[in-house]
Amino acid sequence: MSSNTIKDQAKDAVDDVANSGKADQARGHANEVAGSARAKVGNFIGNEEMEAKGRVQEAEGKADRLKGEIKEKIEDVKDHVKAGVEAVKDKVNEVRNKH
Known about the structure:
By secondary structure, the chain is mainly α. It has helices spanning about 5-20, 20-45, 50-99. The chain has one domain (about 5-99). The protein is elongated.
């Protein structure tokens, strides 16, 4: 195997992790917390712009977190479908081998 192929595989693996549902959930949660804190500080010091920006960041974080949860659910469904297809293949082969 060439080092270029290994390098490409490593890059693909890193991209998969960076774009995974878990990564989206983590980024989203971090933005929710940071946005909430920013909004509270803005409210406390009477800075309406800071408070509004914090609320926007919090909402964007929630959207990212939910997007991550959806990605995870889709992966779960794909895994179940794949397992179901394999089970059907096994049954078909079992029936074929009996005849």
